[in-house]
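Reviewer 2 asked us to include a model.

Predict the structure of this chain.
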Amino acid sequence: MRKFVVIGLGMFGFYVAKSLYEKGHEVIAIDKNKEIVQKIKDFSTQAIVADATDKETLMALGVHDVDVAIIGLGTSLDASVLTTLYLKEMGIKNIVAKAITEDHGKILSTIGATEIIFPEKDIAVKVAMSASSTNLLDYLPLAEGYSIMEIAPPSSFIGKSIRDLQLRNKYGTQIIAVKELIPERINFIPSPDFVIKDSDSLIVMGKNEDLEKIEKAKK
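Predicted model (structure tokens):
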């Protein structure tokens, strides 16, 4: 079990706090809005009404010993910057901050955020990817220019083994797992002899431009 503090309980912060708590972690949830804090009480270890942009208040809350601080104050640039700065000064090593623009993200990184999240941007990209592809089932961005995609196999893949497909040579990508429907299971790092079925879905990792080649493969 790890200890988290989530500051800012808009939709992003609320569901992050709730999800972490449901996974068994200790979660301190903080927001200025009393009604929102009331709603998160059943989904957090401790729910606190407080202004995290006040340094003395933040220090008094005793969040200095958390493993990870998550700042969901992306709609207020000043608030997220001040909170990030104060948490860094308190010695918190892992600070995840929501940003609304690239410049906002750069500022947060400069003053101490260790990870920047762009929820709206990430969701928009995911929706665009799904809407523009007929065989894309899911999409997860990794490092810049790299992603993991879950796709329905093109018809040209059906009945062929992973060795026969030669995805690394043809597309510069790699199948890291296969989700089988019959029987229902996930086959991690499948054998080169694994034969693709039309009921399978493929979890593929690679550069974005290479993954697009598979999407465009003839069905």
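The longest strand covers residues 174-180. Residues 38 and 47 are 7 Å apart (CA to CA). We have added this to the supplementary material.
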